Amino acid sequence: MSIKDILKMGDPRLLRVALPVERFDTPELHSLLKDMHSTMQHAQGVGLAAPQIGVNLQVVMFGTGEPNPRYPDEDPVAKTILINPVITPLSEETEEGWEGCLSVPGLRGKVPRWKSIKYTGFDEKGVAISREAVGFHARMVQHECDHLWGILYPMRIKDFTQFGYTEVLFPGLSDKSDD
Ligand code: NI
Question: What are the tens digits of pLDDT across the range 73-90?
């Protein structure tokens, strides 16, 4: 297990469509998940996708696990490993919210997302996951899964007046890290 370099926007490896995982509960998969977890923790992120460390597989992890000081107004999201995900919107409704990304350091932007979704997939042992999510939780899942389709959040921004440097947009934010 080791901390990996996080690829930054501009790297073509972030623009690939990731491949589905075919075998679960393997040493290779567990090793990847350990690398992702230590890399995400080191970067103080709340989500990471395998393509962000250069591994082109449909694997994401996300979750705050407890109230996060960077998102004091948001409900905690259970720490989750999600493999081969499928997202289905539960209504036509979208909402805008601020996002950052470890692959786009120092910046934040307001991104439209489905407000309410169902997501399915598998955990690292191949056990099926099926959940419904709204708001911040739904946004986090959509952001991470976008990495698997080669989409970075700036590609979804509609209003570029709502895109800028974190330290300028949120001067009071004590923790300047990205997610
Ligand atoms: Ni990201």
Answer: 778 899 999 999 999 999
